[in-house]
Design brief:
- The complex is a heterodimer.
- By secondary structure, chain A is mainly alpha-helical.
- Chain A is built from 8 helices and no strands.
- In chain A, α2 packs parallel to α5 and α3 packs parallel to α7.
- The longest helix of chain A has 40 residues.
- Chain A is elongated.
- By secondary structure, chain B is an alpha/beta fold.
- In chain B, 39% of the residues lie in helices and 23% in strands.
- Chain B contains 11 helices and 10 strands.
- A 6-stranded mixed β-sheet of chain B has the order 6-7-8-3-9-10, sandwiched between helices. In chain B, strands 2-1-4-5 form a 4-stranded antiparallel β-sheet, with helices on one face.
- The longest helix of chain B is centred in the C-terminal third of the chain and has 18 residues.
- Chain B is globular.
- Classes of the chains: A mainly alpha, B alpha/beta.
- At the A-B interface, α4 of A face α3, β6 and α4 of B.
Chain lengths: 257, 276
């Protein structure tokens, strides 16, 4: 029993200490963002690495998620003779929930893990120490561009996910199942509000982008600089980011909608 | 303050370490280390693996801070510098990491040009000249377009040396430069360290456990063990040292003051008492 309490206490203190380190790290990270003004090229490079390279998986997933939504939604709605509202169902689900959340999960798996692995390996191969010894601040040159890129890329990806999803819903709902095209689009236009639905979805995506990039970069910097350490850190990034996305989604939904 | 320190410091000493204490977790790495690194010479810090030789270099460069004691580099106390001052000092220090620590996404040329591009507004033509001169000095002008992954370990270290030299530092620190090198790369590195030191008027600090190689190019040698300096002097004076520990280290004897067996319970008791 004592042993259990000891381990439990030790674990809690360890976790809190880590959270503290991560918070200090975040403050340093935010303080370094200003330096990107003069190094815009670094940001563009990272936007390409984490944003553009994640685009294909996001678009394909978006298309299929939209198609499945239309299929499921149609089967339910047709029972009430309300299949004309299919556009609303698909668009609202995508824009407020599935767009930010699924994109967040995909982003954590594709770009977050890559960020952690890259930074972890830079640490393991002494590249970060090397930069410091060259009087180059890794916060400004390595961490800040990746952080801002993740923060900016996720909302854009989520928007594209939703757009492609709505198109997928159109393909299945209108082209295959025979819902009226005019009803699909016009009902969607009437029911989906820009600020309350699209805007709030965007806020979610921004928050997820912030948290995933923070976790991914911190895990990379904080990893044990060995192959096992980097692999464990990469796994932690995906697990923690995914949990954070799902947990925060609940909180944000409760607050905003 | 810094000028005061500079006058206090002996001009012949570039790095002065006094009563340095450092521990990692519960393990004490340094317990009162005193080292003077003479200006303009090649100094080697020798010691068994795990004595914190790399840690020492990181502390000189201000990446780690000690719990007690001081490190003065060119009259400046490293632990007390503000961030800006520390970065200014680091620009005058070069460090060669064991792995080279080249940035893997840049070519050799861009790696060597990196510090110049980061810290100066020099025109690209001048940067090209400076980089090619440094690459030529280490014999890698022909490798300028290669990526670090395409280099052998020895070539990566030479490229890293070119990068460390590009800012004309006053001191270069080498972290285990000879580990895992074939005889030719080893010869090249030895030659480079020595000629670079003389030709550019640098101070060189090497940490290593490769004994013969280090002794052959050093003017001054410091041996550390268990967190303290065991012996310091010229290579010749070390060979004549009366300390049995130093003799064991220099001759590589398996048993001596550093026992072959780690401290353990009595052998017979241990075998007979296996079941209890």
């Amino acid at each position: 029993m004592i042993d259990f309490l000891q381990r439990f206490g030790g674990g809690t203190i360890g976790a809190l200490e880590r959270l503290g380190r991560a918070s200090i790290f975040l403050v340093q990270l935010l303080a370094a963002l200003g330096s990107l003004v003069s190094r815009f090229g670094l940001l563009v490079q990272q936007l390409f690495a984490s944003g553009v390279m994640t685009l294909s998986i996001v678009l394909v997933s978006g298309l299929f998620v939209g198609m499945v939504l239309a299929l499921q939604g149609y089967n339910t709605l047709v029972g009430f003779g309300a299949e004309e509202s299919l556009g609303v169902v698909v668009a609202l689900t995508l824009v407020t929930e599935l767009g930010p959340v699924v994109t967040g999960l995909l982003f954590a798996g594709r770009a977050g893990s890559a960020m952690t692995a890259e930074i972890g390996l830079m640490k393991a191969t002494e590249q970060l120490s090397g930069l410091e010894m060259m009087a180059v601040d890794p916060f400004k040159r390595v961490f800040a561009p990746r952080f801002l890129a993740g923060f900016l890329a996720l909302p854009a990806l989520a928007a594209m996910f939703s757009a492609v999803g709505v198109t997928g819903g159109y393909l299945v709902g209108v082209q295959v199942l025979g819902v009226d095209a005019g009803a699909y689009w016009s009902q969607m236009q009437n029911a989906v509000g820009f600020t309350e639905d699209v805007g709030n979805g965007l806020i979610k995506a921004l928050v997820f982008g912030f948290v995933i990039s923070w976790i991914a970069i911190f895990e990379g910097v904080d990893c044990i600089p060995t192959s096992e350490g980097v692999s464990a850190a990469t796994t932690r990034t995906v697990v923690y980011s995914s949990l954070a996305v799902l947990g925060l989604d609940f909180v944000l939904t409760a607050v905003m909608f | 303050m810094s000028s005061l320190n500079a006058t206090l410091d002996d001009d012949a000493t570039l790095v002065r370490i006094r009563d340095l204490h450092f521990s990692r977790g519960s393990k004490a790495i340094f317990r009162g280390l005193d080292i003077d690194i003479p200006r303009g010479q090649v100094t080697t810090v020798l010691g068994p693996s795990g004595t914190g030789k790399t840690t020492l270099l990181k502390m000189i460069g201000g990446q780690l801070k000690g719990e007690r004691g001081s490190i003065h580099v060119d009259g400046l106390e490293v632990g007390k510098l503000r961030r800006r001052e520390l970065y200014a000092l680091r620009k005058r220090l070069g460090m060669l990491f064991q792995s080279g620590a080249l940035l893997t996404d840049l070519t050799v040329f861009d790696n060597v040009a990196y510090p110049l591009r980061e810290h100066t507004d020099l025109p690209e033509r001048l940067i090209r000249h400076l980089v090619l001169m440094r690459l030529h000095a280490v014999g890698l002008r022909g490798a300028r377009d290669l990526h670090p992954a395409e280099l052998s370990g020895g070539m990566a270290r030479r490229a890293a040396l070119a990068r460390a030299l590009v800012f004309d530092p006053m001191m270069i620190m080498y972290d285990e430069p000879f580990t895992g090198q074939d005889p030719i790369s080893m010869g090249v590195l030895l030659e480079l360290i020595r000629t670079v030191n003389t030709a550019l008027g640098l101070t060189s600090v090497i940490v290593s456990h490769d004994l013969e190689e280090s002794l052959s190019i050093s003017d001054y040698v410091v041996i550390i063990s268990e967190g303290k300096v065991v012996e310091a002097g010229t290579p010749a004076s070390l060979r004549e040292s009366g300390s049995p520990w130093v003799q064991q280290f220099l001759n590589g004897s398996a048993d001596g003051p550093v026992p072959f067996q780690l401290a353990a319970p009595d052998y017979a008791d241990d075998l007979l008492g296996a079941d209890t």
